[in-house]
Amino acid sequence: MIPRMISLAAVEEWCDGEVRPVSDYLVSEEPLEIRVGDTPLSVTLRTPGHDLELAAGFLFTEGLIGSMREVASLEHASDDAQPGANCVRVRLASGVTPDLEGTRRNFLAVSSCGLCGKASIEALRVRGLVPPNPEFRVEPEMLYGMPDQLRAAQAIFGRTGGLHAAGLFSRDGRLLASREDVGRHNAVDKVVGWGLLNQRLPFRDCVLMVSGRGGFEIVQKALVAGIPVVASVSAPSDMAVNLAREFGLTLIGFLRGRRFVAYSGGRRLQSVREDTNARRIA
């Protein structure tokens, strides 16, 4: 089944005091239920497409699985209550027993905003994460071209104007993978799921670029995936900056044209020439 990512609607366009009927493209937004076995785990609103990547990335970044070796099967599922296109069932390998009840409580806390920071940071510490690749360096000149590359890869955004995007870039500025979704965190999970399903994790030598702002949940998911640099076209939150600084992740905001702001980890933005000279001096 081909997912319906856009729909067509009859609207009224107002321009300079005149009104006319036109047709406009809208981005699709539908619920996706993720189940572990027969246990409903989470429902997220997303743009249909790359659902298996989304489910895999979600389970990984939320700490339910550590690799695809812990997954016996991952597929669309259906029953009388939920059509197959909007439900993904994950069956875990024998002996893998995550704390589903505790995970569900954490998802409820995340939705309430008041508890998500403390609960999520403590969960990261429990997982024993280490700071992302301290040796990674990226040329500032390379960063300037990332927004245009990501925008060019947004096929659905070009028709609807209503989607976020996440793009994974190599050290030399090549776009390795990009995904679109109504939720920026879903777009990131899809990229992480792509890496998980293709055995590309951790992303130790990559830059993650996101549309919109660099929020706490984006930094959190990047840390789990081992990403050393996160860039966004808008501002980060204070919680995102604090988390990035604590774990040594490079966080960039307002990446537009030939300007950006480094909120954390500016040492990774040292040019290759400067880095080489510094090593010679040392």
Write up this protein.
The chain folds into 2 domains: 30-126, Ubiquitin-like (UB roll) (Roll); 140-281, 3-Layer(aba) Sandwich (Cytidine Deaminase, domain 2), CATH 3.40.140. The chain has helices at 51-61, 100-112, 116-126, 140-144, 146-152, 155-160, 184-197, 216-224, 238-247, 272-281; strands at 6-15, 18-27, 30-36, 39-46, 71-76, 87-92, 164-170, 175-181, 206-210, 229-232, 250-256, 259-264. The protein starts with 5 loop residues before the first strand and ends with a helix. Helix 7 runs parallel beside helix 8 (216-224). It is of the alpha/beta class and 282 residues long.
**In CATH, what is the homologous superfamily of the largest domain?**
Cytidine Deaminase, domain 2
Oligomer designation: single chain
N-to-C SSE series?
EEEEHEEHHHHHEEHEHEHEEH
Query: Per the principal axes of the C-alpha atoms, what is the gross shape?
Result: flat
The computed structural class is alpha/beta
Q: Biggest sheet: strands side by side, in what order? A: 8-7-9-10-11-12
Average pLDDT across residues?
Answer: 82
Gyration radius, rounded: 20 Å
The level-1 CATH class of the largest domain: Alpha Beta
Q: How many domain regions?
A: 2
The N- and C-terminal alpha carbons lie at a distance of 59 Å
The CATH topology assignment of the largest domain is Cytidine Deaminase, domain 2
